């Protein structure tokens, strides 16, 4: 989240106001966070196949609709907000992939280019199915929730080690170690 300390503080203030039920806080918050949400959406879509029908703006709009439904969330800070936004975007993309898969009546699911997924690289150069990756992340979450969140934030959202550390409230060393472990586990899971 490449914002000045003043903007970071302003975001946190508006998030707390929103948590208190002040509707106008969301209206004030969205223009401030839009650029970062757009960066996240662009990052997500960078991993999608060429010709993907969902554009960054549409992804942000769908994520926005999911976020405004989060009335019960006690927003901790801006990192917490962007982590929830990243999770919403992942869910939207996976739902989109599943919908396209159903439309094709059992056709191929959405593929993720392997150059975008270093942990999923296979010797034969095949693509990784986004649905298979999501299912693997769900299995990883049942084993280690934090590792799954680290993958989600680092890979899908493009957060740095520092941003991931802040979002999860753990040290940078923990993020680095668990990122490495999670990538190895996913490589094994996706490549058998």
The order of strands across the largest sheet is 1-2
Number of domains: 1
**What's the total helix number?**
8
C-alpha-based Rg, rounded? 17 Å
Report the principal-axis shape. Answer: globular
Order of helices and strands: HHHHEEHHHH
Task: Give the structural class.
Answer: mainly alpha
State the helical fraction: 55-70%
How many strand segments?
2
Mean pLDDT: 78
Approximate strand percentage: under 5%
Largest sheet: 2 strands, antiparallel
Low-confidence stretches: 109-117, 120-126
Q: What is the terminal separation in angstroms?
A: 35 Å
Q: Could you characterize what this model shows?
A:
- By secondary structure, the chain is mainly alpha-helical.
- The chain has one domain.
- The chain contains 8 helices and 2 strands; from the N terminus they run H-H-H-H-E-E-H-H-H-H.
- The termini are far apart.
- The model is unreliable at 109-117 and 120-126 (pLDDT under 50).
Provide a compact summary of the structure.
The protein has 192 residues and is an all-alpha fold. The chain has helices spanning 5-19, 23-46, 56-68, 78-103, 130-143, 145-156, 161-168, 172-191, and strands spanning 111-112, 128-129.
Write the topology of this structure:
Blueprint: H1 5-19, H2 23-46, H3 56-68, H4 78-103, E1 111-112, E2 128-129, H5 130-143, H6 145-156, H7 161-168, H8 172-191
Antiparallel strand pairs: 1-2
Structural descriptors:
192 residues, mainly alpha, two-stranded antiparallel sheet, globular
